[in-house]
Write a sequence for this structure.
């Protein structure tokens, strides 16, 4: 369905058959729109993990995206891809990294989940993975039960936002400090120019 103020989507001809969404390697997944246009591809090749594990995640991802899946926009799919990358990195860093989805036990999942900070970003990743892993038949059913548990809301932020008037005062104070420093720098440069170059050598900062 086309969004507001957009032209309506044009469906392909009746005989149209969408090209395969997964490449022969099983690692590159293409997002196809409803009108048969490739919106982009998601490459699981550089992600951590064994070939089989990455292929299984890519296959679950493929079932979740596109016209037949729940994730249809590029932004939603990209966020889901980032959640998969976060999980695979965590699994690869564990003491005994799983080589297949079948080895992701409830204990493995809970250990990884407990390593994450209690933030809104973490909650977003957990919700995305819960939706994605429901498309993975290789995942043990007992693990899926743990993954499917309710994700607690992120704690409320303790930061206090500045009012607009406070922001103006802060900006004014910062400008005063900057202008004062700029005057001192210009005075120093003028003195150096009047007195000639202090040194003809150069040093390069490396590393």
């Amino acid at each position: 369905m086309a969004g507001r103020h957009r032209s309506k989507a044009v469906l392909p001809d009746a005989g149209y058959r969408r090209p395969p969404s997964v490449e022969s390697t099983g690692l590159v997944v293409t997002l196809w729109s409803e009108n048969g246009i490739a919106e982009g591809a998601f490459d699981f090749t550089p992600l951590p993990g064994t070939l089989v594990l990455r292929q299984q995640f890519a296959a679950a991802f493929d079932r979740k995206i596109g016209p037949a899946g729940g994730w249809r926009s590029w932004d939603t799919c990209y966020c889901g891809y980032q959640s998969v990358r976060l999980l695979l990195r965590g699994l690869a860093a564990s003491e005994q990294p799983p080589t297949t989805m079948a080895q992701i036990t409830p204990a493995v999942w809970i250990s990884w989940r407990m390593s994450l900070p209690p933030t809104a970003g973490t909650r977003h990743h957990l919700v995305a993975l819960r939706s994605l892993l429901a498309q993975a038949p290789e995942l043990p059913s007992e693990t899926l039960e743990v993954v499917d548990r309710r994700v607690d809301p992120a704690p409320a932020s303790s930061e206090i936002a500045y009012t607009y008037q406070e922001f103006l005062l802060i900006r004014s104070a910062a400008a005063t400090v900057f202008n004062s420093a700029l005057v001192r720098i210009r005075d120093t440069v003028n003195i150096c120019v009047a007195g000639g170059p202090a040194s003809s050598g150069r040093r390069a900062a490396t590393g």
